[in-house]
Amino acid sequence: MQQTYKKNGPVVIGGIGGSGTRVVAEILLRFGFYLGDDLTSTARDNLWYTLLFVRQNWYYKNRNNKQAIYTGLSLLSKAMITKRIPSPPELEFLRQAVVPLRGSRSFRPVIKRFKQAWKMPIADSHKELDYVGWGWKEPNSYLLIRDMAEYFDNFKYIHVIRHGLDMAFSGNQRQLFRWGPLYGVEIPKSPSGVPVASLRYWVKANRYALRAGKKLGHEKFLLVNFDQLCKSPESEIQKIISFLKISPSREVYEEALSISKEPESIGRYRDHNLNQFDSDDLSALQRLGFTI
């Protein structure tokens, strides 16, 4: 049984929620990357990563605890590709992730997910020959870039960035409310304060990711501009292909191009008053390559 694809990864896709990570995940799926069996139907988020790491109280307490983070990453990789029995520390890590869900509608699906994770995965079936690598997509993954790079030998990370002002007027502000205090961003007390806080979070969170990426270097970190991916998909997809060191067929390449369609929400910020935003945040936006 061929196992070479397991050595090519993980390739992780992250970014601010709503920045276009789903489109990049769809492209990698077309290219033959195994992103897990347990994904949200539309966003393609890896639900194992969400369960284990997108826990606000846990992360605030353990973000500098490498042992705890490595335990979770080990459990994640076992659930996805190796199917080895979890160690006692890993089982305890899982228990702590699941117990707070007891009594909620999420509890039973999580238990079902745990049981299914150690059955023979699709990646070990006859389809395995189609895979060229593995990884996952979960926007919140950007928080663990440094830890994942240290833990996984063949780690690569794709960070997706979208125009910060379009993001400021998005209905998806979960990261702002979950992680804003990490960067000193005050949680808005009313809906009218969301755009300003959202842009500030966008600036600080992307700066964090880009600083981490600069240390990793171009072999392990790729920045994908979602706006450019939609407007000029050929050049951005070629960057992804070069970064992943793969050679997709012409047919697969054409399929990938067809995914990158410009959504109606691009440029929505032009319908809003921009005087509310801090000049420093607008300057930072422009320094990251976006026009106003």
Q: Quick recap of the structure?
A:
This protein has helices at residues 21-31, 47-53, 56-62, 66-82, 88-98, 107-117, 145-151, 164-168, 174-179, 194-216, 226-231, 233-244, 250-259, 279-287, and strands spanning 11-15, 33-34, 133-137, 156-161, 221-225.
Write the layout of secondary structure elements.
Layout (H helix, E strand, L loop, with lengths): L10 E5 L5 H11 L1 E2 L12 H7 L2 H7 L3 H17 L5 H11 L8 H11 L15 E5 L7 H7 L4 E6 L2 H5 L5 H6 L14 H23 L4 E5 H6 L1 H12 L5 H10 L19 H9 L5
Parallel strand pairs: 1-3, 1-4, 2-3, 4-5
Helix pairs in contact: 1-13, 2-4, 4-5
Structure description:
It is built from 14 helices and five strands. By secondary structure, the protein is of the alpha/beta class. The chain has a domain at 4-162 and 217-261. Helix 1 packs antiparallel against helix 13 (250-259), helix 2 runs antiparallel to helix 4 (66-82) and helix 4 packs across helix 5. The longest helix is centred in the last third of the chain and has 23 residues, at 194-216.
